[in-house]
Amino acid sequence: MAGILLQCVVVAVFAFGVCWGLPNQSRWARTEALDSKGQVRLHWTPRITKGDIQFLFVAPSTGWVGVGFSPNGGMIGADMVIGGIRNGSPYFRDCHSVGNTLPDVDIQQDYELVRAMENGTHTWLHFSRKINTTDLLQDYQITNEAVDIIWAYGERDPRIGEEPAYHALNRGERSLSILDAIVDVGQEEASADPSKNGTEI
Question: DOMON domain spans which residues (predicted)?
Answer without folding.
Answer: 38-154
